[in-house]
Amino acid sequence: MTWLNEPGDRSLKDGVLRAVTESGTDFRRSTFYDWITDNGHFFAEPAIGDLTAEVAVSAGHTTRFDQADMMVRADERTWLKAGPEVTSGAVQVSTVFTRGFSDVPMAPAGPPMSRDGLE
Fold it and tell me: What is the pTM assigned to this prediction?
């Protein structure tokens, strides 16, 4: 695995990645905020063909736009990321689809759900 924009404070031990993001880092492209950033921290494994991936995130979200995501990336203009993000005063589920322009739908994180989708 390789880093795109490697953070200064990171470790990988026993299959657990720990990374402390640096201030002002993100992946967004021409959102309604008119931002273009491609300086977020991304630990990547190249894949060709079908892909199945799973990630568990533990994050200390405290500030607006704090986030921890899983990302599938073709290049700086084409990617998808999803995960928890602080916005509107609470942790939201954020899914960012980017194909030249980042579309950023959000939903309240809410209570955990069981495997069959029922609370």
Answer: 0.77
